[in-house]
Every structure is written in structure tokens, then in C-alpha cells.
Design brief:
two-stranded antiparallel ribbon, 154 residues, mainly alpha
Length: 154
């Protein structure tokens, strides 16, 4: 599975914008080169001989996986992922978030092209629930950190 060809189809970014495309997807390329997700995908492909999951679904899962890893690294203030610098420490938070958002929209487009009428509703519903849970978790962390800082001051 060549995820770069899945994202870089020319359908989303014109050929004239190849430098812009490299710039936009640099955090994505970086995280692909340094995570252990490839081992998980290899295992999934092996199991897929029995599961018979559509290749397009595997590509969607892979793009979501990379995007969520980059978001998670930002939220956790991570420095390293599997021994390599995290994407946002190299490319900056804003650029990394732009890449993640782009990947989310590419995924949404791909889900809408699956030909299953309920797929986009299921994807969006699940994604919204995931974001709501993440927001609640981050709020709890901020409240806890404020509480800790008040205790340490007294």
C-alpha cells in the first residue's frame, strides 16, 4: 500500500503546486518514517487475507492513524515518537495541524466515495464523538494542572 500515492493523486493538489504539496505533507512523511505503525499495518494486511477488508478502507485507517498520532503528540507535548523527534517539533504546531486537518478531509472525501450511503454519517458521528471525548479529557487535564499549580504555590 503506497499511502503517498493515495494522498498525492493530483486530485487534491495540482501538479503546479508540487512544492506546496511537499510542504503540506512533510509532517505526514516524517511520521510515516519514524513510527511503528508500519508493523501494525503489516499485521493487519496479513490478517486481512481472512477478513477481506477493502484496500481503500485500509488506506483510510492508515491516514487516520497518522493524523491522530500527530495530534496526540501535540496534545501530550511529546518530544519523541519511537526515538525520533515528533513532527510538530520539526515543522511547528500550526503546520502539523494543517497537515492533520488536510488528512481528515481527504479521509472524509474517501469515505464518501465508498458507495455506502451510511458510511459518511457513521464516520462523522464517530469522529465527533472522538473529538468530544478528547475535548473533555483535555479540559480535565487543564483543570488538574491548574489545581496542582495552586497547591504547589501554597
Amino acid at each position: 500500500m503506497n499511502l503517498n500515492s493515495e494522498v498525492r493523486t493530483g486530485e487534491y493538489i495540482s501538479e503546479d503546486d508540487s512544492e506546496d504539496e511537499k510542504h503540506l505533507l512533510a509532517p505526514f512523511d516524517h511520521i510515516k518514517s519514524c513510527t511503528g505503525i508500519e508493523a501494525k499495518l503489516t499485521a493487519l494486511k496479513a490478517v486481512n487475507k481472512w477478513l477481506l477488508i477493502d484496500e481503500q478502507m485500509l488506506n483510510i485507517a492508515e491516514m487516520l492513524g497518522y493524523a491522530t498520532l500527530m495530534i496526540d503528540d501535540i496534545e501530550d507535548n511529546s518530544i519523541l515518537r519511537k526515538g525520533s523527534p515528533v513532527a510538530h517539533s520539526i515543522f511547528g504546531i500550526a503546520r502539523t495541524l494543517n497537515t492533520c486537518n488536510y488528512l481528515y478531509f481527504v479521509v472524509m472525501k474517501k469515505v464518501s466515495e465508498l458507495g455506502h450511503p451510511e458510511a459518511i454519517k457513521l464516520f462523522l458521528g464517530t469522529f465527533i464523538i472522538l473529538m468530544e471525548r478528547q475535548l473533555k479529557m483535555n479540559t480535565k487535564i487543564v483543570i488538574f494542572q491548574l489545581y496542582e499549580s495552586q497547591i504547589s504555590k501554597s
